[in-house]
């Protein structure tokens, strides 16, 4: 099934990975990218090389990806995704599942905007990325720009359209010593946006 | 030798042709490899030689690619060939659409183009409904696409968006689908030799492009349309088309044509193909890109699929319809 899905994504989008600034390497990483469509998850998963794909777990919104049995099966069995809830509950830290995964040594794919943006530019990044960077200083933070996915399947449509998409991976961003949260998040966002022009 | 080839049956003849073409390509590859091994001086002439080698290499690679595609098409029979060219169409249209910005309202029309029109057109080719196949896209589809777009309720740049979509369908689906149609065209006394017609078309069009390119480099005439193409000028165009037409005349033996007819057919196909290439260049300039394929330079440094087949997409329908009309098939 994973193989079939990979073929389908390649056929529809090409799922081309462009590595600028860092090579595809099996070290523990947090990939963070812009978010425009639910298909972002599939694309970045398909763009990674086979070896890294098995080591890397995407983050999926629990409410969307567990709504139907098919979705929850695909995210759990094929993507090995980490579910996070978008609604905050007082007693639970939303980052907890991510922290667990990182402690186990997995790499993760994160969309720090939190929700899908509809504008050209990504929205401001949420603090989660900063918190994780602080907690796991040895994990490499790799920015990624996902191009064109919103054209493949706009909101409310069911049939995808074949359009070439690419994922551009940039030079890693590191959290500076004592760098304020806001500065870091702005810098991380700029690193993602800058990849659009590469 | 000639007598021997004549006595072979159709499929052996086609096989011999492919063997010959592969042989030529192989010799060319070996020669290029030898040349690239030779040490080049570190001055301007050496640099220029290297550039020429790189250029020749890309050309050779795309020739290999095309020949292999045709070979697989022939090996896999009528159905296989139709499916193969449908796939080429699909990838070419994907490239075209990637670089033509569409809006949300175009989604349904795009789905229609990719998943309904493309398979239908190739089904019509595969089942040899040549009358319907020639009018299906220019009549029915061209009227249906704007209706779907209008129902999407988005008036912004409506005409422009539709023009892009229809142009993409015209070049990538309609043009390309005439290549398998040539394979399936039934000439009297020429059964199962459609591969020769396709070979004839490809070889004259590619020769025309190559000669035109080399003439333009040699002659260094002022380009006719500098904003569109830095190399196109009428003199080298005439040379290219002329040489290719002569070659077409010489190749008359493998076609059902007499030499004069072959010359005229080659002339028509080359004129359409080379001018079509110019049109595609204009579209690329409009989008501000050097070649099709994924954005900017692809990973391999090669251009897109559409760069390789665009001349063929323009030449095939013109050639096909000229043949059909002249021989009343």
Give the tags.
heterodimer, A: 198 residues, alpha/beta, Glycerol-3-phosphate (1)-acyltransferase, 9 helices, 7 strands, 37% helix, globular, B: 329 residues, mainly alpha, 3 domains, 11 helices, 0% strand
What report would you give on this structure?
The complex is a heterodimer of chains A (198) and B (329). Chain A has 198 residues and is α/β, with parallel strands linked by helices. Chain A has a single domain, classed as Glycerol-3-phosphate (1)-acyltransferase, CATH 3.40.1130.10. Chain A has 9 helices and 7 strands. In chain A, 40% of the residues are buried. Chain B is mostly helical. Chain B has 3 domains: 65 residues; 107 residues; 125 residues, no CATH class. Chain B contains 11 helices and no strands. In chain B, helix 7 packs across helix 8 and helix 7 packs across helix 11. The longest helix of chain B has 32 residues. The two termini of chain B are 32 Å apart.
Residue-averaged pLDDT of chain A: 85
Helix content of chain B: over 70%
- The coarse silhouette of chain A is globular
Biggest interface pair, residues each? A-B, 14 and 18 residues
Separate helix tally of chain B: 11
Number of extended strands of chain A: 7
Radius of gyration of chain A: 16 Å
The low-pLDDT segments of chain B are 294-302
Structural class of chain A: alpha/beta
> Which sequence of SSEs, written as H and E, runs from N to C of chain B?
HHHHHHHHHHH
> Could you tell me the radius of gyration of chain B in angstroms?
21 Å
Q: Count up the domains of chain A.
A: 1
